[in-house]
Amino acid sequence: MKKRNLKIDVPWLIYDGDCSFCRLWIERWKDITGEEVRYEPFQSLDKLGTDPERSRMGQEVSKLFPEIPRENFVKSVQLILPNGQVFSGAEAVFCSLSLAPGSRGRLFWLYQNVPGMRSITEWLYRFVAEHRSGLYRVTVFLWGKDLRRPTHFLSRWLFFRLLGVIYFIAFVSFWLQMGGLIGENGILPVQNFLQVVEDNVGSGRYFSFPTLAWLSGSDTFLNFLGLGGAFLSIALVFGFATVPVLIILWMFYLSLVTAGQVFMSFQWDILLLEIGFLAIFFAPLQILPRFSRESPPPRSILWLFRFLLFRLVFASGAVKLLSGDKTWRDLTALSFHYETQPLPTPLAWYMHQLPLWFHKISTVFMFTVELAVPFLIFAPRRLRFFAAGSIAFLEVLILLTGNYTFFNLLTLILALLLLDDALLARFFPKQMKEELIGKRERARSFSFGKYALGIFTAVIVFLGSVQLVGMFSSSGVPAVQIVRRIAPFHIVNNYGLFAVMTTARPEIIIQGSNNGEVWEDYGFKYKPGDPERAPPVVAPHQPRLDWQMWFAALSPYEQNPWFVNFMARLLQGSPEVLALLDKNPFPLEPPLFVRAVLYDYHFTDFPTKRGEGTWWRGELKGLYFPSVTLSG
Prior knowledge:
The chain is of the alpha+beta class. The protein folds into four domains: about 10-145, no CATH class; about 150-295 and about 420-425, no CATH class; about 305-405 and about 450-500, no CATH class; about 505-630, no CATH class. Helix content is about 55%, strand content about 10%. The chain has a four-stranded mixed β-sheet.
């Protein structure tokens, strides 16, 4: 064996430069190890080239490692350490990766110490070496031709701007209705609610019902929360003091969700809170917005967002099958959905007219996206892109056919985080693309709060996993009690809309009268009422009273205490409550009597719509709420 004459300062990894598969993965390892390992093709031993500098280096390589037979370089990669040690095959791979900055060498330790690990990984290495041509095509299909670790500066930048827009929509939408819903003269005054909580819960009320409204339940303070959240949302859009702004936004919206009672009990409200909470740990640490100085996105939090997207989409499909609902299992659910959903759009009317076979195919597509595609969130890069596109396509279809406020937008910004800078850069200005060049090095070395974030990530994954397991366990999971304990803060939540498909559409029509004989209809702004009025497009705004009317129609009024309060406010002529309605048939003074009748509503068909101009047809079913008066 020839003795090496020259010393080396860093480990050298020698690989087959003619192998496309090898070159792809070497670029990946270079990105991981940085300057800690030097990578050279073994062909430089033979083919020095015409460049003088390269030729000098090639001669240097041939003098450095004469002790390694050339056939060894052909068979596998060779890692040469400064102390003279030589590793090959899988051992060389694990050892080189253990030299990466911040690495603790766990994979190399497993290779050396776990029984069977050495033989298994070396067999896998030989298998890969023998099938490099085919695996190159597989690699390109799954990852593309750039295997460097992806960065997410652009996707995070876009994510926070869109999150700011959604926060703005959520705050302004509720603020416009707040007085009539939970204000001092509203349907469910928050002051009364908090007094009941205090009387029944006592000292534990602050944890069980977290809201800043404990400081004051006045309309002035509620307006402060609503408008304050809106202004802070604008600051988030422009990137000012992102972390402090996110903390306050989360606190303000949590306060309104708690104070909003039944009117703020929707899945998009708690989803916004869960996303907003994780966003605090994902944000760049800076006061003034400057893209070039943004700290790298923590990878652990990025994967928490992806885990949230997985839970959200997968649970939406799973609850439909777990409920045992016949219409989901026989694939007929969508033949009812467009007509019976809370607030359909005009397109929903046209979708409802399509044949049953189309609805069944659509249901199969939906189950595929909700039950199979979520697993691709954790797959290689290009499969993640496919998952993002599939989920986004489904969400856009839902958005076009139903008014689900900002729920679809929240799902879309989560899907956005499946994309990386290499894909998004083509859509950004040249200056931002150039600023990405220096960010890759900082992304490699970033370690701020790494261990704290690791613990936080483990806790959230545990709690989220408990939620998922709890869906499938009829006997319950002991750890669910932990989740229930923190449930008021909506840090980790259960999701899943339309577990049971509603196959009929009962509609409540509220009426007033001054003599108990002649009744006049109140009109709502968005929910079905007038058969000639087209279904509206109102999202991302949510008319929360209209939504609650849909839920109220599915059960007796005795199960909806807020509805009784609503009727009382109509008798009192509350201006704040009347502002939530489109038509008040008693503009001068409130009626002496109010009641509610129940109709069965259906979409019309093409001939009826052409002939009569009606979108709906209704059949009177009976009385929903009896005639009442304040004096009786």
